[in-house]
């Protein structure tokens, strides 16, 4: 039997395949037949010369077959048409020899009294008077002459002659090499009778349904019309093997032969998948059980594990996709081989073992929110309660509900946010589109835009700051958003998103009272009413490069459509780009983003420039608030402790492109914001299970220092 083979990420049981399907080893039979060339009663020196031929035959069979089997998977299975083709020399054939009486050599090897010389002594020198090469093609004869080391009028041992026979065979061009000798008065005349390999007329590859014809043509075309070179043949099989390995396709070359009229025949076995069965496993007892998922929603992920498909390591991609997309706890595949092959290909039946996650449940917890860290104070704390329902209707769909509770920065009533979501990871189309229907409520501080201005190191020119009235202590905008979102892969590393949402936003103070103006009497909503209403259509295209091309590009276009007269109209475009470069253990990250808004612009929708995710060294929104913006950032980091701490230095710069006055109420001008600025500094990132926690100290262009702390960086 053959050892069990394994593809990456899957289990296969192929034991006994060769024993059940293979014919007797043709190459082994040829090896045994070579023993007939040495018979009883032959003089000892004739036996020595015969052993030269036998060693050459064994070397031509043994090492070549072993190396090719190990490197390319060629075995010694049955030829598809043994009557019309034979194994190719140096890949499995023996060498043919002409057994002629060489009494003169025998006599030369005997002592003067007629007794044989030391039998089996390969080291006794023999004087060679001449060396000849007998071949139909003079060029091949000259090639053989160029590789042998034996020269006339010098003495050589039997081992030297054996080595030269092997050198001729190593050229890969000869089917048979027979050393013959004639005793002369000047010594032994040595003649190599050479039989060349056939001329290749055509190539036939059987059983290779996956290997493209173009690959076969490219590697075999140099052989056509020429004497078969078994060395080139080995190299060609290696190249075909490389294609199979690159594509992760299971295979085995079981025979390589050539017919009398020069037709090379290669036979490949590509195991195929037979029956595919889904078996559900209990997550506690690990025993088979009845599952909730409809089998059709599992089979649609199995593109490489299906009846008739060629077995390949790409089956692991199906398992990963099924596990990640369908939300299952564990998936694995077991393969078992059938007793009988079909059309020469082994058949592997597959059982897909599926363990489902818990169907529903409640959970709760608390922690620190990234949004709260940016706003500062106790708002960083958050408590949440969750309810989830998995695998709705057996279609791998999920329903989640979350309630988040966080303290208000102004000390008033706590903020309560509700998030509902129904997700279908694959709606069943050919493009792998997912759908999410959601309802979110979220409260965000307006301090970066509408906070009262106070003289600081960043803004010491009090004349640039308008006088503030007795406005509210803190301002917030609360948005309630409902909508549907579709997402699908577009091309390699590209994904696309299309969504339609209905949004209602209203502003309030720290006491949860509706508030329409800030301390400078600037409006907080665009409509002047208690709330603004919009119907938005958004499209987003994302490119995520992996490996050496570690890059990110996000293109977002959003259109607010006034379905009714009281709804807003605007168009917003945002572009973000980031690229990382690695060298000598350090990482340089370069990033930029920019955007523009045309139409009805509520102040809370304006771009905020400055802060931990923008220009560090400034408070949130401290550089400006505008309809347009552009921000650039460069960060160089080095590991201080592998997988624990990174240290980095950075430089940020940003501008509102002189668009601050185009925002309703011009909140940036009222607070004396510069509209452009830069900052630089250094920081430490600590790696944690929830992401890197960053501690940074930055200095603005005016020399004011500021600490920043946050989870990751959403640039």
Uncertain runs with pLDDT below 50, 5 residues or more? 1-53, 55-84, 88-120
- The number of helical elements comes to 13
Mean pLDDT: 80
Rounded to the nearest angstrom, the distance between the terminal CA atoms is 59 Å
Largest sheet: 16 strands, antiparallel
**Helix and strand composition category:** alpha+beta
Residue share in helices?
A: 10-25%
Radius of gyration, CA atoms, in whole angstroms: 40 Å
Say how many strands there are.
Answer: 30
Per-chain topology:
Blueprint: H1 17-21, H2 26-33, H3 44-72, E1 85-87, H4 103-108, E2 126-134, H5 138-147, E3 154-156, H6 158-170, E4 174-184, E5 187-196, E6 202-206, H7 213-220, H8 230-246, E7 252-259, E8 263-269, E9 272-281, E10 288-289, H9 296-299, H10 315-326, E11 330-337, E12 347-355, E13 360-368, H11 370-375, E14 381-392, E15 397-406, E16 415-424, E17 434-445, H12 447-450, E18 475-491, E19 494-509, E20 531-544, E21 551-560, E22 570-583, E23 586-599, E24 607-609, E25 624-626, E26 628-641, E27 645-655, H13 667-670, E28 676-686, E29 693-700, E30 705-711
Parallel strand pairs: 2-5, 6-8, 9-12
Antiparallel strand pairs: 1-7, 2-3, 4-5, 7-8, 9-10, 11-12, 13-14, 14-15, 15-16, 16-17, 17-18, 18-19, 19-20, 20-21, 21-22, 22-23, 23-26, 24-25, 26-27, 27-28, 28-29, 29-30
Helix pairs in contact: 3-6, 7-8
């Amino acid at each position: 039997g053959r050892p069990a083979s394994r593809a990456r990420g899957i289990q296969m049981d192929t034991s006994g395949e060769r024993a059940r399907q293979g014919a007797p080893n043709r190459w082994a039979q040829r090896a045994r037949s070579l023993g007939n060339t040495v018979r009883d009663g032959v003089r000892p020196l004739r036996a020595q010369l015969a052993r030269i031929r036998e060693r050459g035959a064994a070397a031509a069979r043994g090492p070549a077959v072993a190396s090719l089997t190990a490197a390319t998977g060629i075995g010694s299975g049955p030829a598809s048409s043994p009557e019309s083709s034979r194994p190719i020399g140096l890949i499995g054939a023996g060498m043919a020899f002409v057994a002629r009486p060489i009494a003169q050599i025998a006599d030369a090897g005997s002592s003067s009294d007629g007794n044989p010389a030391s039998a089996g002594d390969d080291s006794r020198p023999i004087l060679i008077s001449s060396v000849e090469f007998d071949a139909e093609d003079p060029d091949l004869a000259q090639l053989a002459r160029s590789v042998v080391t034996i020269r006339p009028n010098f003495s050589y041992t039997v081992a030297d002659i054996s080595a030269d026979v092997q050198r001729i065979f190593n050229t890969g061009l000869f089917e048979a090499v027979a050393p013959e000798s004639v005793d002369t008065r000047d010594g032994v005349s040595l003649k190599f009778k050479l039989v060349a390999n056939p001329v290749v007329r055509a190539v036939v590859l059987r059983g290779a349904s996956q290997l493209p014809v173009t690959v076969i043509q490219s590697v075999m075309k140099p052989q056509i019309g020429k004497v078969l070179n078994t060395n080139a043949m080995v190299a060609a099989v290696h190249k075909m093997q490389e294609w199979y390995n690159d594509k992760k396709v299971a295979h085995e070359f079981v025979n390589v032969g050539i017919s009398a009229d020069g037709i090379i025949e290669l036979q490949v076995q590509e195991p195929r998948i037979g029956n595919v069965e889904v078996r559900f496993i209990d997550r506690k007892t690990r025993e088979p059980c009845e599952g909730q998922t409809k089998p059709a929603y599992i089979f649609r992920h199995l593109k490489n594990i299906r009846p008739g498909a060629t077995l390949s390591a790409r089956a692991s991609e199906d398992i990963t996709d099924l596990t990640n997309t369908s939300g299952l706890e564990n998936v694995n595949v077991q393969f078992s081989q059938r007793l009988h092959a079909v059309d020469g290909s082994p058949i592997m039946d597959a059982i897909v073992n599926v363990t489902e996650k818990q169907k529903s449940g409640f959970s709760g917890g608390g922690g620190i929110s990234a949004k709260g860290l940016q706003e500062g104070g106790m708002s960083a704390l958050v408590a949440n309660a969750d309810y989830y329902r998995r695998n709705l209707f057996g279609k791998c769909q999920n329903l989640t509900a979350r309630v988040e509770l966080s303290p208000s920065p102004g000390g008033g009533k706590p903020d309560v946010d509700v998030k509902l979501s129904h997700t279908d990871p694959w709606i069943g189309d050919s493009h792998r589109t997912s759908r999410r229907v959601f309802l979110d409520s979220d409260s965000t501080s307006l301090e970066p835009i509408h906070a009262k201005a106070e003289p600081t190191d960043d803004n010491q020119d009090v004349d640039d700051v308008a006088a503030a009235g007795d406005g509210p202590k803190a301002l917030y905008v609360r948005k309630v958003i409902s909508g549907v979102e579709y997402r699908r892969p577009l091309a390699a590393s590209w994904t696309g998103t299309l969504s339609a949402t209905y949004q209602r936003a209203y502003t309030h103070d720290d006491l949860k009272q509706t508030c329409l103006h800030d301390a400078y009497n600037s409006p907080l909503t665009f409509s002047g009413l208690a709330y603004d209403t919009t119907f938005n259509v958004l499209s987003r295209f994302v490119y995520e490069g992996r490996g050496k091309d570690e890059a990110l590009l996000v293109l977002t276009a959003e259109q607010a459509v006034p379905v009714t007269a009281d709804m807003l109209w605007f168009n917003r475009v945002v572009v973000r780009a980031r690229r990382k470069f690695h060298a000598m253990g350090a990482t340089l990250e370069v990033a930029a983003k920019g955007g523009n808004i045309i139409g009805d612009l509520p102040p809370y929708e304006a771009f905020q420039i400055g802060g931990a995710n923008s220009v560090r060294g400034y408070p949130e929104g401290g550089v400006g608030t505008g309809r347009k913006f552009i921000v650039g950032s460069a960060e160089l980091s080095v590991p201080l402790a592998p997988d624990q701490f990174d240290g980095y230095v950075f430089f940020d710069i940003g501008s509102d492109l002189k668009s601050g006055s185009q925002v309703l109420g011009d909140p940036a001008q009222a607070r004396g914001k510069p509209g452009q600025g830069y900052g630089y500094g250094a920081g430490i990132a600590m790696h944690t299970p929830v992401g890197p926690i960053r501690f940074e100290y930055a200095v603005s262009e005016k020399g004011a220092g500021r600490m920043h702390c946050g989870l990751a960086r959403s640039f």
